[in-house]
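Pasting as-is:
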Amino acid sequence: MLGAPFSVECATGSPQGSQSSVVKPSRAVCDLERAPVVPMLRRLLSNVPLLILFLAAGWVLARAEPTVEELKARISSANVADKAKLCLEIAEKQLTETDKEYTADNIEKAQTTLTDVVSYAELARDYSIQSHKHQKQTEIAIRSMTRKLNDLLHVVGREEQGPLKDAISHLERVRDDLLAAMFPKGAK
């Protein structure tokens, strides 16, 4: 009944003063039983188009995100400042993939993607220093990558830590180069 109030006369369905031996539910009882369900169904059905719209938008946005191969193909045609951003994006995507591969114990694949992280971070550094643009953003992103690799270093086994330590030291040198380019000694 879902908490709908009704009277006993309404529940039996027999009008007052009727001597009928067969008890039939009245229309009022049926309407009371369905009454709480109908608004709930209306609300659910009114939200279906909105739900479909959100799912479609999510699908389009998920597909709009370029893959690593597409980003690598864009590098050759981009200007120097955009090359730095593209290389940084590739390095970040490959870092995410490296984390997934280490978590899944695919060590060979993880080391391949880790090599991409370092090489594209170095390219991002070179392009940002060359163009004098996006140096601060590149340094911040590489600092974040170093932090993530340090976190990953504590998760993997001792035998897998060597390549991670090498990658961390490379990324720290990349950061140092960026900081030196942003803040040259003796320049005021």
